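Deliverable D5.2: sample structural annotation.
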Amino acid sequence: ADTDPVRVEVIAQLQQVIDDGSPEGSDLHLFATHLLIQKKYRDVFANLETKEGRIAWLRNAYELETKKSS
C-alpha cells in the first residue's frame, strides 16, 4: 500500500480525469498531470461534483494556459 497521501490523491484524481472521458495521453489528461501537482488545483478539482464541471474546469484552464503561451 502506498503511504504517501499526496501520491494517493494525485493517482485518484488522474483516474477521475480518465473516468470523466479524457484518456491517458490526451491533451487534457497530460495537462492535468501538470496542473494537479499543485495542491490549490487539487483542492478545486476535488470540490467539483460533476463530470461536466470537472471537464469544463480542466478545459478552461488548458485553454487559458495555451493562450498565455502562444
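Annotation notes: The radius of gyration is 12 Å. The longest helix spans residues 51-68.
The annotation will be released with the project's public dataset once the embargo ends.
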